Amino acid sequence: MAGREDGDRTRPGAGPAWAQELLEHLRPAGRDVRRVVAWLADAVEGSVALRDAAGNLVAGTRLPLDEDLVTDIAAGRIASAAWQTREEHLRLVRVEHPSDACVLAVSRPAPFDRRASEVVTHTAQVIELLLTAHESAAAGHRLRRATSDLRLAILQLLMVEDTVAARRVAAGLWPGLLDADTACVYVVESDPAARDRIVEDCLDHTRENALVVRCPAMDGHVIVVGPRETTGDALKALVGRHRDTYLGGSVRQSLARTATAYGQAVSALAVAHVRPDKTAVYTERTHPERLMDPAALRAWTARLLRPLDTLPHHTRAELLATSRLGLEFTAVAAAKVLGVSRNTVRARMERVESLLGTDFTDLTVRAVVLLALNTQIGLADVPPASDTRAPGPHLADLLSGPALRTWARDLLGRLDADARNPRRTLRAWIAAGGNAERAALALGVHAQTVREHVRGAEPLLERRLLAAGSDLYEVVLAHLAVGDLDLPRLHPCI
């Protein structure tokens, strides 16, 4: 007798301790329906199967059952059932579920005594709680995922300058979020593994008064579009409390220039890595387009982009926005930000190339076209010219102004003190389309030498060159302005 009692105490579910054992499965670390079903099988010394309404096995081992009886229990026509044969005793119990009921089937060779019956009944209740909790957690996860996808969709609309649609989508969940005409864009960088926590912290710190998006292009980046002045201070406070977290911010831009602001934030992020407070805001410097005659620049832009005017408005806007992102970053990064394939980005850019009759593999072409695309954003507020076919300023006219040439000479003159002559290398590298091997062949040096010279020119010019973008294109325009590079091939009237 004593030996049998000792044996009972080691078996799961034996004696009055079974209730405590069952409750342990409700602890956060033990919430697993399959473990509960396995525990029940040991507790009653039998076999257990948990099936959903469709007959699929959720947990346990499959048992031969009367399918009509299982259907009646799952449908709620019968709450429970029991029968026996010479070989086994069987119990079927309905388990409620938020989406659909399940059936718990328990088979054992011995009859169900009072203890076994209580174990089955209470286990069914625990399984019901676990299934409900799992369903609630899954619903919460789906809601968070849908909200995150919606935020990304709004950002993508802003990136292609469709502010009307972006406001319409945002109004349903975040009324007033995009009512402002301008906003700053921030990029928070952290370890990719910590990004989900950073996203939640960004939402808390900005009190959902900003658009917080997981960057689709960079795993460790969180993009924040903040129309309100307080957003920057809130994010700075967040970065101060997290190690290995950095913040880059743009200057205030119109919502239509969200893509431009994003590029500024990324540039500022590089500076933030060397700042003690790990934050940096893009510093407005003298950009070449600001040294050109505004009216002449607008007229030239309208004429350059005139071949796209025959397209439907939506198609034209889509092509221009995609090309601007593709030129500012890369086709791959632009595709991730816009939520389309890289082939779609390349196809749109190739169509723009074809309409403009030019070649985007030429860095001078890329620089000039991006100048026009950035200028084009402001043309919506400018009355269209009566005839964009009429003779107007050429690119050479825009680049020949004394203010622009002075700026270009001062910028490139920073390279003259270097005995390695990086200015010559940089000129050859740009002419070769940014290809170090072709530039090395033209100069008669090693490709690594070309890369080192270009990399060494970056701190002198205070611009990133090896990463395609506005920094590089400003340097290209400077070379064009001083005559160190030939003007790109555009259609004759441009």
TrEMBL record:
This is Helix-turn-helix domain-containing protein. Transmembrane segments: none annotated. Coiled coil: none annotated. Residues 332-373, 424-475 form the PucR C-terminal helix-turn-helix domain. PANTHER family: CARBOHYDRATE DIACID REGULATOR (PTHR33744), DNA-BINDING TRANSCRIPTIONAL ACTIVATOR ADER (PTHR33744:SF1).
